[in-house]
Write a structure and sequence with these properties.
By secondary structure, the chain is an alpha+beta fold. The protein has one domain: Gcn5-related N-acetyltransferase (GNAT) (Aminopeptidase). It is about 30% helix and about 30% strand. The protein has a 7-stranded mixed sheet with strand order 1-2-3-4-5-7-6, with helices on both faces.
Amino acid sequence: MISIKRSNGTDPDFIELVKKLDALLHELDGEDHAFYAQFNKTNLLQHTVICYDDIIPIGCGAIKEYSASTMEIKRMFVLPEYRSKGIATAILHELESWIVELNYFNSILETGKKQIDAISLYKKNNYKIVPNYGQYENIEDSICFEKNLIDL
């Protein structure tokens, strides 16, 4: 049975999934991975979700405040053998619901242009490409998205 638990960045299951995410991103990003890693410290995340297949942690995501009205989605990951089963969408929807519960109405995120599956996920879930923001402003390999959650 698939379930989703809310937690924080110190959760051992979240940390283990993020290690697998970082290994994948290191492979995709090569030398650029160190640049991105500085913006993804798990111990600073107060709002994380972990998806389970029974007791097995299979996916995760997180949110952190970007501004008074906007949360940034971070650390989205699903184990390869669980992809294309709606798990990432379920995690994304849980994060979006949490954002609204916390009285924010907008979500933003950054992903790499090489992460075709991630780009497809966000487009499928009505995220719009926006100019790169913040630390990603002049990063050629980044693509940023935004979604207004006011109607959730």
